[in-house]
Each structure stands twice: as structure tokens, then as C-alpha cells.
Amino acid sequence: MTRVDRQAWDVVVVGAGGAGLRAAIEAREQGLRCAVICKSLFGKAHTVMAEGGIAASMGNVNSNDDWQVHFRDTMRGGKFLNNWRMAELHAQEAPDRVWELETWGAVFDRTPDGRISQRNFGGHEYPRLAHVGDRTGLELIRTLQQKIVSLQQEDEREYGDYEARLKVFQECTVTRVLKAPSKSGSAAGGRVSGVFGYERESGRFFVLEAPSVVLATGGIGKSFKVTSNSWEYTGDGHALALLAGARLINMEFVQFHPTGMVWPPSVKGILVTESVRGDGGVLRNSDGKRFMFDYVPDVFKEKYAESEAEGDRWYTDPDHNRRPPELLPRDEVARAINAEVKAGRGSPHGGVFLDVSTRMSAEAIQRKLPSMHHQFKELADVDITAEPMEVGPTCHYVMGGVEVDPDTAAAVGVPGLFAAGEVAGGMHGSNRLGGNSLSDLLVFGRRAGLHAARYAAAFATGAAPAVAEADIELAEAEALRPFGAEAAGNASGGVAENPYTLHQELQQAMGDLVGIIRRASEMEEALHRLAGLRARARRAGVEGHRQFNPGWHLALDLRNMLLVSECVARAALEREESRGGHTRDDHPGMDRRWRRVNLVCRLADESAEPAAADSVLGLIRLERLETPPIRGDLLELFEKEELRKYLTDEELTS
Amino acid sequence: MSYQARFKVWRGDADGGGLVDYEVTVNEGEVVLDIIHRLQATAAPDMAVRWNCKAGKCGSCSAEINGRPRLMCMTRMSVFDPAETITVTPMRAFPVVRDLVTDVSYNYAKAREVPSFVPPAHLKPGEYRMHQEDVGRVQEFRKCIECFLCQDTCHVVRDHEENKTAFAGPRFLMRVAELDMHPLDAAAEEGLDRRRGAREDHGLGYCNITKCCSEVCPEHIKITDNALIPLKERVVDRSYDPLVWLGNKIRRRGAEHAP
Asked: Where does the record place the 2Fe-2S ferredoxin-type domain (chain B) (predicted)?
């Protein structure tokens, strides 16, 4: 048996995007020793891709804004399926989290009186998004990164070691959350004891022992063919949580961002920020028509302009006009674009036209949307100051995730496990508003770090849950399997599978069959294909050695992508209604009775066994969970008339 | 629209390696990173490459293409002649880990040596007031995606490993300039002199403004003109300004001659 390097920490954070870094800062500021593990280099996390801004009701541009209005917008955007307590905490705490960034060196765009400027965005009643041009995510990551460096500088002064209390393990992947057996001896009820992972560079295995583990791994987009997500988004945290005994909720809700690039093919899916529409961009079909006016759903009729003239006036006089329908929540716009293309009114490369050139001066476009200008110029030879962009829906964000306690971010059912950011479920309900992601990362990243630290601090020195040697050996064997796949494949009569091919087939299946518009027969077909892929993935084999071997990394990531894909497909098949990021062709209406139902995914008990490739049952079990009623004072923020669209009559009378 | 392109990619590790020839399909609209990915998926599944966002926003896929430091995701194949052989090598200024992946820890070490933003003691969170015209320059520097191409190309360290100890490189001298220009940075109140630090701790004097860094910057940041030269000017203001020197001299002489 090889010796695996072991280190002891208080809190381990998996993921170094906005949520992970904010959690790590908090845990360290609580005086605990915190390790951050990330797959990329420090500062490269997918958060850098966030463009539009951070939603926080600071009221700098329109003083009517406050947390209650933000809460209301968030619940409407999520079609009332949100965990209302998370939405409440998020709206209340977001302004403090933004202001705090300034004290760490962030430099946001300013209002004329020198405060943080705020911009309009889909679904937000007032200008609310703190931003830096269209590169807000980069500013957020850099600020958190530099705050971590400043804490390390403090530690260097105090202990002579930058990494005494806060260390980033970059280019490492975690493959298992480890648990100490419960008192009864079963792993099911045990506490978290650490993580098992490997260094991508050398392939060496390591164990970080810690009583608290915070999952902050982001999303699952790499299971879909057209996505705005980077290679890191393989659903690692979702799968790690499932494998550790936690549960995932709302996995059927996947956000397709309405505007991704559609051409050239190699950049298909890359995001075109919603700020383009927030700042005046309009959507047109091949007839030149602003088609969004035809797609305003009943629940939003009173809130959106009825004519182009009114929509145009809104940009300068928002108090007396209603916003243009291009600024409907993302799910509505994505479906509308999909429908236009299907009806044969699409652009040459299968999208629609998004135009700012006729509505903003070239100078204003370059100032307000510099990275979009750059992106189209460099990648598509399109000058957005002179011609329209071609855009179409792209898989962007998963609303579903680990079921957590709203106040502490603790994963339900697994003591010592926490989750924050995209990997956590509940906050955004069935559809996330733009700008609510960065604020989510900060609000719940901080809460996860705080409560992970408190939980870890409660263990006396030497009394933390122990990592079992046998679990390390199992994790090691699992991680090494792709190297022996060829031999094992021959023994069982199969051939070794190319992990890249399996990945492409998975993306194709999910994109075609569990994509933006869904129907039962297709999802059944998807589950069938997933079962086949699962069996073949066990034979995924790689050549070469463990040093920086991307084929091996992908072979290991396939386990995670297959697990989360099954969750998405199974939950989507079960929910027989259309709501937010879940649209059923065969059940097109929203059903008030489904609002209170969360679909919960957990790992089947028998799935620890090698024979768990059962094609009918799969590895995931679904349960229905009734959500707690929304607190009375929060319901009073809405008109009765509006609530009637979402809540059942029994809920309204009680 | 597809064609077969000839590529030479450096394969190897710290112990050595060399260029390996590949023939590979190129489709319309593709970038160099797409071709590297195609090689991984077909001819060379263990070819090591760093990448992430594939949209020029994260700065992971830095390499040298035909000898020029570039982001692979932002280098379109259409800029090359289909007959041309395209050579892709790792960044030269940093030690090779494997294939196109280099050890960039020099940059992270230098980042830690720059003293952080010092928040003003008299302002609470939410009380910061800054004007857009005063933060525009700072924001230009904060566009940096830390691809380290400027560090790679800078001749002070490119072929002079021995200078790495004393020289922070353009990216981190720009970071010093950024903090020095931040309207609310309170370093001076804490007794921290960023300009002296630039000269004494970060090797600003090594830079002789050849602008190589600005030329390779994928964000088109004017590193030399807007960060390094102004920083040099202010360092000189402090340590040696001929006019100040002359003024002091005259005043002192005047004092000497006073009755």
C-alpha cells in the first residue's frame, strides 16, 4: 500500500470561486485554520465569467429599493418555489457583503455622487446590480483573492509562515468526502472527517483531515452539450454530497441562459451578458420583429411594457413607464427564443438577433460592454457597435443542489458537511434572477464559513472525527481504476472506453433529451442512455501516467456527471408541470399544487455495490418533500391577487 | 471549410522533451485551444494543457504560438495560412511541468510580497465615496486576468532567472501602481511607502520601458504607459527630483548668506 500524505486542518473548503473564498475568509477570521482546494489555479474559478453584477438593494440609484423589494423579486423569479428563509437572508445581507468588498479593495463603477453604481437587470424592479463594466465576476474573485493574500500576510508577520492558517491547494481534485463511522458502526450516520483527493499536476493522492468540509464547487453544466460553463463544472460537489449521504433538491431546475453565442461552433454557448439587454439591447427575429412583446406571460402582464414606445421610454423614465419584455426573467426569454427559432424565424446560425448597435453610441457600447465588444470582435469577427449579435439559449446554471439548513448552510443529514453557492439548492427556487448568484455566493459563503468554523471549534484538540484507513484505501482504488480498465475490460469481455467519447455522448443525450423543453418519452430515453453510459464508464480507461493526465481526470469526473445527470433526468420526469427552469411540453401549465413539492434525490442504498448499474432503477432514489409554509409577514409583502397565481386556495386561507 | 493543419506541439517534462508533429482537422471559426483539445480527444489523450473559461476571461491557457506569448483560446486559426505549420510551446520564462503546463508559482510568490490595500480607518463599510474619473485608471489595471503573458515576455526575467528574486515583473509592479493610485488607500497613514517599495522591494528600476508587456497583454492594458512610467515618475519625484534638489539648494544657500 502506498503512503498517502495526510494533513490536519479545522475547515476544508472545496472550491475557490466566490462562495469558497468567502467561506475560507470567514473561517480564518474566526481564528481557525482553513484549507481551500481547487481544480484550477487560484483566481481562475468560473466566477470570473460572471459579467452583469451583484444584486444588493443598496438604493444608490433608486432610493425606493430595499430588501423587501429584492426579496419579492427573487420569489417571483423563482416562481415561489424558493426556500423563503434563504431568499430573506440573501436580500437582507447582500448590501453588507458588497460594501465589505470595498474595504478589501474592490473598485466598482460609481454614481455621479461617488457611491457604488447599480444597473438594471431582468426581473429586478429597480437598478440593483453593483458592477464593474461587464467584468464584475473578475473583480469579485480578484478582491477575495487579494483579501486572502492580505490574511496570509498577517499570518506571515505573526507566525513567519504565509500558510499557517490559510492555504490554497490549487490544481487538486477531491474525489471523496470521508466520514467517521457513527457510534452504531454504520457509515450512514457518521460525521465528516475529511476529504480524499489528488494533485492534478503529479497525480499524488492526499487526505486532508477536518471536522468541517464546505462544498463550494459550483454547477453541473458540463453534462450538457451547449453550455456557458467551464470544464470545472462537472457537478463534483453535488456528487460528493450524494456519496456522503446528503440529499439534493430541485435538480430538475436548470437555467438556460437566453443569450449564448451561437457562432462560430467552437464558442457556441459562451455567455452574452444580460447587461446587453439591461442597457438597451433588443431581441429581433429574422423578420426584424421585436418578438418578446408576444411572450409576456399572464403572471407578469402588469409589470411589462405593452408597446415598443413604452419600453423605450422606460430607460430614461422608469417611474412612469414599464420595462421592456426583453428584461423578463431568463426562463421566459430563453423559451421565447427557442420558440422563434423553431417557428423558422431564427438567424442564419440558429439563434435570434440581439442588437445594441442601433440603440447605443459606439462609444457607450465600448465603455459599458467592453468585454462583450472584445469577445465578439476576437471570436466571431462581429463588431457589436455596428451590427447585431446572434444569440441562443445555453445551459448556464443549476438551481438544484444540496439540501441545506438556510441559516447555517449545513447539509441536511451529514454532520460537518456544509454547502454554499451554486452547489447548494433552494435559494433560487425554480429560476434564478441575474445578479442573484454573486450575492448568493457572498451571503451564503460567509454563513457556511462561519458555521463550519463554529462546528469545528467545538471539537477539543485530538477529538475530531477520525479518518479510517480502510476508507482511504477504497478511495485510492476507485481513483486508480481507469488505469487498469483495459485489463479489467478484457476479462469481462468488454473493451476499454475512451472517456472523451463517453463525455460527448452524455452531453448529447442531456442536451437533446433533458434540455430546455422536455417530454416524458424523451426523458425515459435519457435515463435508458444514462444507464448504458454508466456501465460503459466503469470501463473508461486511460493511457500514460498520473502526472497531469487530462484523460484520467475526465474518467474520474464522469462518475460525478453521470450521477447529477440522473438526478436531473429523474426529477424532471417526475415533475409534471412547467415552472421556471423546467418546461414540459406534455405538461405546459404551472400547477399550484406542485409549488409546495420539492423533489429530493438521494443515493440508493445498494449503490455502494459494484452491481449497481441496474438500468431500470439507476443509482438515484426520488422522494417528495413538502416545503414549510411561507412566514406570514413575508406573504404580506405581496398583493393577494398575485399570491393567488402561485398559492393554492388552502394555503391562502390558512 | 475544414482542412488538415500541421502542428508542432512541445511534449515533455522537467527532464526534457521536444516538438512532436501532428496532423489535425481544423474547422471554420476554431481557435488554437480547440485544436489542442481535438488532439487530446484523438491522438494524445494525455497531452497536458491548462484552460478554463475559453473566452479570454480567466487567463489560464497562456502559451507561445509560433514564438509569440498568447492565449490559446483567443488565437483564431483564421489568422494563419492553412499551409503554415503552427508551433505551440509552453511559456518560456517559467519551469515546465509537463507539455504546455508550466510552474507559475513565481507569480503567486510575487503577489504575496505586495502589501495589500489599506482601508481608511475613518470610513465604515458603505461610506466610501469615489468618483468615476478618479477610479478609471485603477479599473484599467484591475482588468488584468493574470495570464502572466507579460511576465513571460518581459526580458528582465525571460532569459534571466537570476533577476527573479529582485524583480516582481510588470503584472505586480502594475499592482503596486494600482494601489498607489487608489483614491482611498491609506497606506501612507500606516507609514507604508508604496513608491519606495516599488523601487526597493519590487525592482522597478530593472524595467527599461521597452513595452513588450503591453504588446502581449490580451486585455490591451497599457501597462507601460499607464502604470509603469507614471510609477517611475512618482518614485523619482520622491527620491531624486532635479527641480526639488535645485530649489532646496538655492534656499539653503540663501539661508547660509542670511545675516
From this structure: 5-92
* Angle, vertex CA A227, rays to CA A500 and CA B3, nearest 5: 60
Domains in chain A, ordered, with CATH?
257-396 (3.90.700.10)
Chain-chain contact of B46 with A544 (C-beta, under 8 angstroms): yes
Name the catalytic one among A200, A330, A446, A595: A330
- Listing DSSP states for A537-605 in one string gives HTTB---S-STT-HHHHHHHHHHHHHHHHHHHHHHHHH--S-BTTB-BTTB-S--HHHHTEEEEEEE-G
In this structure, the answer to whether residues B84 and B169 fall within a common structural domain is no
B54 and A267 in contact by Cβ < 8 A? yes
Q: How far is A145 from chain B (nearest CA, A)?
A: 10
- Does residue B138 sit at the A interface (CB-CB below 8 Å)? yes
Confidence tier at B250 by pLDDT (50, 70, 90): low
CA dist., res. A325 & res. A123, Å (int): 10
| B247 pLDDT tier (thresholds 50, 70, 90) | low
Selected residue with higher pLDDT from A442 and B159? A442
CB-CB under 8 Å, B28 with A548: no
ipTM at complex level: 0.92
d(CA A210, CA A34) in angstroms, rounded, equals 9
Sheet containing strand A620-626, strands side by side = A401-402, A248-249, A597-603, A620-626
Active site residue A454: no
Give Cα B15 to chain centroid, integer Å: 27
* DSSP assignments along A591-629, one per residue: -HHHHTEEEEEEE-GGGGSTT---TTT-SEEEEEEEPPP
Q: State the sign of the Cα–Cα–Cα–Cα dihedral A461, A465, A466, A467.
A: negative
Q: Per-residue pLDDT averaged across A474-494, rounded?
A: 75
Residues of B in contact with A44 (CB under 8 A): 52-53, 58-60, 146
Q: What is the DSSP string of B61-123?
A: -EEEETTEEEEGGG-BGGGS-TTSEEEEE--TTS-EEETTEE--HHHHHHHHHSPPP---TT-
Instruction: Annotate A455-476 with DSSP letters as a single string.
Output: HHHTSPTT-SPPPPHHHHHHHH
Cβ contact (<8 Å) for A230 and B57?
A: no
Domain with residue B189: its CATH number is 1.10.1060.10
Pair B202, B87 in one domain? no
Domain with B77 in it: 3-102
Indicate if the alpha-carbon torsion angle B213, B118, A131, A425 is positive or negative: positive
Indicate whether B18 and B76 sit together in one domain.
yes
B97 and B127, same domain (yes or no): no
Weakest mean pLDDT among A559-573, A601-615, B108-122: A601-615
B200 part of contact set with chain A, CB < 8 Å = no
Phi and psi, residue A154, nearest 5°? -60, -45
CA distance A317 to A309: 12
% of residues, chain A, pLDDT over 70: 95
Nearest by CB to residue A162, choosing from B98, B112, B125, is: B112
Task: List phi, psi (to 5°) of A354.
Answer: -120, 120
The pair phi, psi for residue B136, each rounded to 5°, is -55, -45
**Residue with the three cell numbers 421585436:** A290
Mean pLDDT of A579-603: 96
pLDDT for the residue numbered B7: 98
Tell me which residues of chain B, numbers 28 to 57, contact chain A at a CB-CB cutoff of 8 Å. 28-31, 34, 40-41, 45-57
Determine the Cα–Cα distance for residues B111 and B178; give it in Å rounded to an integer: 13
Residue B171 in grid coordinates:
503584472
- On chain A, the residues whose CB falls within 8 A of the CB of B104 are 41
Residue with cell 478589501: A104
Q: Which of B52, B77, B137 to mutate to test the interface with A (most CBs of A within 10 A)?
A: B52
> How does DSSP classify residue A231?
T
